[in-house]
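Risk register update: the risk of archive-format incompatibility is retired. Evidence:
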Amino acid sequence: MRVVDLKIVDIAFGGKGVGREQGKAVFVPYTIDRETVSAEIMREKKQFAEAELVEVKESSPHRVTPECPYFGRCGGCAYQHIDYEHQLAIKWHQVRNVLQRIGKLKDVPMRPIIPSPDQYAYRNRITVHAQDAVIGFFRRDSHRLIDIERCPISCDEINRALTELRGRNPRDGHYTLRASPGPRAFSQTNNAVADALRDLIIDFVPPNQQLLIDAYCGGGFFAKALLDKFERVIGIDWDRFAIEAARQNATEKETYIAGDVDVELRKVAAVHLNRPPRPNDPDSERLRSISPATLIVDPPATGLSANVRKAIVDLAPATLIYVSCNPSTLARDLRELQDKFIIESVTPLDMFPQTAEIEVAVQLRAMPSAF
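Archived output:
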């Protein structure tokens, strides 16, 4: 192992500072751009090296004292040492850079990042792990647990639930703690930013539209917020628990389908391209003669599969709204779709303050004569 002095020139997606030694990138966690640091090289590859911070020699004016006593050991947060305004600036630039580098997009129509009203105590759900009487989260870059008594980025209800769990001496396993009971369906962990995301998407859509298809719809968070703007709404998700939740208070204009997104999108495309309905398929018959107008996709971090991307092209929606929790897979998918769609806007949202995670909403429209 050796110690090197570095000038941090950037913050990579994932939260590590980037310095250079003899032209090779060196990644150092818990550093800030423009700082001068000494770091110990821990792993060295042909193209890059990974290091641990030894000393900050010239500190950034954006450096602050972390609020969490576990910061630096727990693997959950990456940015508690950075003031919040600079966290937002870092994330905005990371989204733009990854869309340019991976997506090969030249002029990215970036909008300002939407901040979180609460920088701490915002999480309404966490998953902790129990093993050999240790209850907490995994250590950074490790499968070893760190014992956690209280998580500062989690809301009070979550921390009370964590205290109760610890008092029960639970068996080894994984435990999801929620601020309020609800259906077994995916939901965003930051209520205020989730509401801002919903309002943003509502603003994307003009009134008096015919059909909304909400893929990866979960419990219908977006679909139900947009009911007033569409004659008909279709939600698709592979999670049957989420679909059951969406169906509980559905109106006549809503249809929620449990199934693979690519398969169900192809069914909808077949109907709207005036192909004959499939025998014994009530959804196919019911949806005939409705022209698709808007498609929302909110996939997991892996992004859209090749089959889903093809199904989107076959469906040929006039408007496509892509909500992503992973800018890298978003960039890959936009690169594949850019021949058919024009990007109207890219809006980052800070759904996860103090962490390296970023939410992004992209508004696209069909390119004239592309379909």
